[in-house]
Amino acid sequence: MECTLCSSKDLIYFKGVDEIDFYRCNDCFLIFKAPEYWCNAEDEKTRYSHHNNTKDSGYVDFLNKALEPSLPYIKEDMEGLDFGCGPNPVLAEMVEETNCKCSYYDPFFFPELPDERQDFIFATECFEHFFSPSKEIKLLTALLRPSGTLTVMTNFWNENTNFKNWWYLKDSTHVAFYNKKTFNYISEHYGFTIEYTDGQKVIILSKKVVSEV
Fold it and tell me: Scanning 79, 139, 165, 207, which has its CA 20 to 30 A from the CA of 112?
């Protein structure tokens, strides 16, 4: 067994909620669900189709937890992407109200990625669905322009998390769980700096500008 993010074999096995098998990586601190518990694509799409992600006040307030701290890094006329938007690209609509363009992508509902690199990307409530975080983060990095920002919303685990009853593990489509140290690893290995985090569920990464020699 290898870590789905960093490929390390230095893993700790444990039983989590509902006696499901999980592994914690001692190198990047990702926790991931054992592959035999992953949903198939059909079951995934069915569950996502039932998400009540409409533009009501509760969902807008939820998305604003990611949007509001990102606004200082977004300028008028920039182009961005709502990555993993689900069946209703509500966040993209909210971003466009700030006079920025925002396209959207979802592997099940809107499977075409933009041709051009983006000034900013939002990935809200999708990192926990990544079967292969390394593959998806490489894609996100490639989609961003230098100095572009990646805003991630996903619930972080910490040393006090009780994995026997943590509600975030109970969703059958959630397979990857991140610690603040995991984002330190991501920043170091994928060329980002951490611009902001609330320490709980939102983090903003900025893609480093690589100088030509």
Answer: 207
